[in-house]
């Protein structure tokens, strides 16, 4: 009671809430202008507003007669903005900067706590504010001056070009087709600065009429600041209890809740997450993390969660890769979604991502170019796949993001075996879709690739050099052995093969020597061989049926392909008796070109099969160690080696291993 007596009530004032201008009343502030220098007496030339954005522009006149006004600067600015020619679109029609523009900006978006008050005759009338705007001078005329300057420079550079030259100028036009836009891409576009600016520019201006402070129309509008029904009929909102009145006068602040930033999509509240069912918790965690070891998943779910239930749930939303769990592709790319980069459907994206996951089950390294070549997807999509589960290493490729989890592999062999079976099915589908070469999965009991040993580039070079040295020594020994065999098989009694000289003089001397003294070449199948060669080969090899290069003979001579090939060989050697292997292959290719499509010989004839067929047809193979050889065919009656007769004899055809020289000669059979 003592406190109330010390602070007595001096006066009671009735408060009224006026609503006539509640949606139209704005408070204008001029932060760059002192409060003592108002714009009340300055002529307002025009005014316009965008109601949705609460954006206002005012044009006010400048006192050009004021001694502080620089006329030369005003004329220069008007000339820069409008140019020398003035028309209706000119900013300054008087060729002088005689006005300036003020643009508004919002100070706060929540004006529910602000009102304009008018005290009259012992009554306080409150009108809520619709907006609080700050107006500052606009310098858009400088942008117009810059645009005019660029236009003048472009005109000067173009020069006095003729109309015909302008018409002949052909410009290339690039046509682009828009991709299907996903929901996520659309949200990013809507929130972008460019989209907001475009949306703001689309709202039309509403032009207003400005009336001065002392104008009768302004006085009339100010009457709406008073509550029209002071009898209390229209002020039932204020007839409330003191607590309700204070609540209405000072509502709780909601600005903090509205301005609170939304959490990113990859940030989860663990408290909210644990209120969901276990299956949803696992799905949300895997969808956000993408790749996770099983131990980390158990630690996030809590200590009281059954690991068997987690294993059962994780297999529904993830696949096992190198002992770690990677979220399934259909979880990230639902059925009706598409790529934000290329617009390809979710089915194609899932297939491509499954291929990347499968490659990581084979190795810790994946090359992005290889994945793009096989899947035929864009580089951005492939990069998204790899960023989900790998990290890039310079000059190496993409490495799986987590180390190999051997502990989980050993602890849960049944789960690993089940995942191995799933990957086998996925591999079969990928091989069918992408036409992959048949590859076998690693034959491990766990079905997963083990930890890869990283080998540096220098180590690989050293290993390759050592292998090359070992192979070089082996090849040298094999070459020497073959040379000795060839030398032993070709140096026969009674047979002499002459080498052609490389120069023209040597060729002339060679011709004279051949004319004076020709050496006989024995073609008898048994007399000159001393039972060491059969059909031009060592006896051991001929008995075994192997060709000279170590390949086995054809498996069956009664097949249609073998019969056709045998007929071609016999017909060819009836026309030409001495042929090199390369010449015979050339004639065989010409023969193939003359055959109709679908012929049996198109099944594929190897060089080994062709050579074995020639030997089987009764031809002899002469292995010549020199580069150019001459031989011929002489006709006559066949005679056995035990019955020598005079005259020429018919010899078996020769297949010369080498290339024939420029000159041709003949052999004489004794």
TrEMBL record:
Any single GO CC term annotated in Swiss-Prot or TrEMBL for this entry: nucleus
Region (Disordered): 146-184, 492-557
Domain DNA-directed RNA polymerase III subunit RPC5 C-terminal: 443-631
Annotated Acidic residues bias: 502-521
Regions of compositional bias (Basic and acidic residues) in chain numbering: 146-155
Domain of life assignment: Eukaryota
TM helices/strands, residue ranges: none
PANTHER family registered for this protein in UniProt: DNA-DIRECTED RNA POLYMERASE III SUBUNIT RPC5, DNA-DIRECTED RNA POLYMERASES III 80 KDA POLYPEPTIDE RNA POLYMERASE III SUBUNIT 5
InterPro entries, A to Z: RNA_pol_III_Rpc5 (IPR006886), RPC5_C (IPR045576)
Biological process per Gene Ontology, one example term: DNA-templated transcription
Protein name: RNA polymerase III subunit E
Pfam families noted in UniProt: RPC5, RPC5_C
């Amino acid at each position: 009671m003592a406190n109330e007596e010390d602070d007595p009530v001096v006066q009671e004032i009735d408060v009224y809430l006026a609503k006539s201008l509640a949606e139209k009343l704005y408070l204008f502030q001029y932060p760059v202008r002192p409060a003592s220098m108002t714009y009340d007496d300055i002529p307002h030339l025009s005014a316009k507003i965008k109601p949705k954005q609460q954006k206002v522009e005012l044009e006010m006149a400048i006192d050009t007669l004021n001694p502080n006004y620089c006329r030369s600067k005003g004329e220069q600015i008007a000339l820069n903005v409008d140019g020398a020619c003035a028309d209706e679109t000119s900013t300054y029609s008087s060729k002088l900067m005689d006005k300036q523009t003020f643009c508004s900006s919002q100070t706060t978006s929540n004006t529910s706590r602000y009102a304009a008050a008018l005290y009259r005759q012992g009554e306080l009338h409150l009108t809520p504010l619709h907006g609080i705007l700050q107006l500052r001078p606009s310098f858009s005329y400088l942008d117009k001056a810059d645009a005019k300057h660029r236009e003048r420079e472009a005109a000067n550079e173009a020069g006095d070009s003729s109309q015909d030259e302008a018409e002949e100028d052909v410009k290339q036009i690039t046509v682009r087709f828009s991709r299907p836009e996903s929901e996520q891409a659309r949200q990013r576009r809507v929130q972008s600065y460019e989209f907001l600016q475009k949306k703001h520019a689309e709202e039309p201006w509403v032009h207003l009429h400005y009336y001065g402070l002392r104008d009768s129309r302004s006085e009339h509008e100010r009457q709406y600041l008073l509550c029209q029904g002071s009898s209390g009929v229209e002020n039932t909102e204020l007839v409330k209890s003191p607590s309700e009145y204070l609540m209405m006068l000072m509502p709780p602040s909601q600005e903090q809740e509205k301005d609170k930033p939304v959490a990113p999509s990859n940030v989860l509240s663990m408290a909210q997450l644990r209120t969901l069912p276990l299956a949803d918790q696992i799905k949300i965690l895997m969808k956000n993390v993408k790749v996770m070891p099983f131990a980390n998943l158990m630690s996030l779910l809590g200590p009281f969660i059954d690991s068997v239930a987690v294993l059962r749930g994780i297999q529904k939303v993830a696949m096992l890769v190198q002992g770690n769990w990677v979220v399934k592709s259909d979880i990230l790319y639902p059925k009706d979604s598409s790529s934000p980069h290329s617009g390809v459907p979710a089915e194609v994206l899932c297939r491509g991502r499954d291929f990347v996951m499968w490659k990581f089950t084979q190795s810790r390294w994946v090359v992005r170019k290889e994945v793009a070549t096989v899947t035929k997807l864009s580089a951005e999509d492939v990069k998204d796949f790899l960023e989900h589960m790998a990290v890039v290493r310079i000059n190496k490729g993409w490495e799986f993001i987590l180390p190999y989890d051997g502990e989980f592999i050993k602890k849960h062999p049944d789960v690993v075996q089940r995942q191995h079976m799933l990957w086998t099915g996925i591999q079969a589908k990928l091989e069918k879709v992408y036409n992959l070469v048949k590859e076998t999965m690693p034959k491990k009991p766990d079905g997963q690739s083990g930890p890869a040993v990283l080998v540096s580039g220098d180590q690989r070079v050293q290993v390759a050099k050592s292998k090359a040295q070992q192979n070089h020594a082996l090849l040298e020994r094999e070459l020497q052995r073959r040379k000795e065999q060839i030398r032993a098989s070709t140096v026969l009694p009674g047979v002499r093969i002459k080498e052609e000289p490389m120069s023209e003089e040597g060729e002339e001397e060679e011709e004279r020597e051949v004319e004076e003294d020709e050496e006989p070449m024995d073609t008898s199948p048994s007399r000159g061989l001393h039972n060491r060669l059969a059909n031009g080969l060592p006896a051991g090899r001929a008995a075994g049926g192997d060709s000279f290069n170590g390949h086995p003979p054809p498996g069956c001579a009664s097949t249609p392909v073998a019969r056709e090939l045998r007929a071609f060989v016999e017909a060819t050697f009836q026309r030409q008796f001495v042929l090199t292997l390369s010449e015979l292959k050339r004639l065989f290719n010409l023969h193939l070109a003359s055959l109709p499509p679908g012929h049996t010989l198109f099944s594929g004839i190897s060089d080994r099969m062709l050579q074995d067929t020639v030997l089987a047809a009764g031809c002899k193979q002469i292995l010549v160690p020199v580069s150019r050889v001459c031989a011929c065919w002489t006709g006559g009656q066949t005679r056995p080696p035990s019955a020598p007769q005079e005259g020429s004899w018919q010899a078996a055809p020769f297949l010369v291993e080498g290339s024939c020289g420029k000159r041709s000669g003949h052999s004489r059979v004794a």
